[in-house]
Amino acid sequence: MAQQLVLVADDAYRVLDEAFSARDIHRVFVVCDDALRFLRINAYFERQTDGRFVFFSDFSPNPQYTSIVEGVRRFRAEPFDAILAIGGGSAIDVAKCIKLFATMNEGVSYLDQPIISNEIPLLALPTTAGTGSEATRFAVIYANGEKQSIVHDSLIPSVVIMDASALLTLPDYQRKATMMDALCHAMESYWSVNSTEESRNYAKQALTLILETKEGYLANLPESNKAMLHAANIAGKAINITQTTAGHAMCYKLTSLYGLAHGHAAALCVAKLFPYMADHLDRCIDARGQEYLRRIFGEICALFRAEDAHQVGLMLDWMLRDMGLMAPKADANTDYDALVKSVNLTRLKNTPVELGNDAIDMLYHEIIK
User: What are phi and psi of 330, to 5 degrees?
Assistant: First the structure.
């Protein structure tokens, strides 16, 4: 896999022109959401009069497979040299899938075909500091109401443009929720059974930077925005190696059932999951053993400057309350049943402490009392 090139945007976006020129890119299919008009880069596009950019924004925040199919159709309708994704996780995931499916057989569902790499250049400019999608080989879309996770190394953008100005217009709720998503990525990657020395280094860097930067970032200070964007990218590199764990596995149904943002839901879960795991080291399923896991948990606590996992959980609860990211209320006992049934068992295998249905049910009762 080729090394990803990370560039920092200048005011005139000369780095983007240079990236196009170096790769002999003349016509670009831009995948973006409606927020583009509020971004500084929109002025760059308005200065272009040669018709080299065509824009695609016909997708929702939880992108549907049908939207991807339409994007592939439009990409194939004209000759393009590259795809540029501008946006949060949804826009980047849509662009990833358009790239991946563009050379497949359009007469058969793309989801039913083997994945074959192609040479279509994919560039990304993230507009949130949270998902880290610009650094990962993962994409999430929805087909017939079901979440579809697509994984392939060729989904990683070859070029990433870091533009901290894109964070200046983030809605307040998204600013908070995406930061918590990045924080959860770092924590979950740190303790994942798939962790390596490289992934733990990424996770440690990201978590340290998030905790040091969060106040300035929440105040929308430009330098703090730049640092948080970097932290989210590093956290993305960490989960690209390890994937996420039970915190994410448990959060998806919370988002659909109660209308929470993804990072908000993930943080609610991680705040309860970490203390639970620390209390049940006897159920360790990481091949490196209980003492290894105890040390890893201790390292995470040290980054929070906390005495133990319970104090970290309380700190996360306080952070969420202070930002107004409250836990929802269960409508009925049937909510808990639906939540437990929704959990992706594959992600539980990445979790270092064994979790059965009873434990998951108990944790959901803690999250949404």
Answer: -65, 135
